[in-house]
Amino acid sequence: MARSEWSFKSAVELSAALNAKKVSAVELTQDAIGRIERHDGKINAICVQDFDRALGVAREADVALARGERKPLLGLPVMIKESFNIAGLPTTWGFVPQKDFRPVEDALPVARIKEAGGVILGKTNVPVGLSDWQSYNDIYGTTNNPYDLGRTPGGSSGGSSAALAAGYCALATGSDIGGSLRVPAFHCGIFAHKPTINLCPARGETPPPFPALPREGDLAVIGPMARSAADLALLLDVMAGPDPLEAGVAYKLDLPVARHQSLRDFRVLVIDSHPLLPADRDVRGAIDKLATDLAKAGVTVARESALLPDFAETSRLYMRMLLGFLGAFFLPEELADSRAQASQLSPEDRSLGAERLRGTIASHRAWVLDAGRRAGLRAQWRALFNSFDAVICPIMPTPAFPHDHLPEQDLRRISIDGTDYPYSDQLAWPGIATLPGLPATAVPLGLSKDGLPLGGQIVGPWLEDRTPLKLAELIEREFGGFVPPKMFDD
Question: Are residues 270 and 259 in the same domain?
Answer without folding.
Answer: no
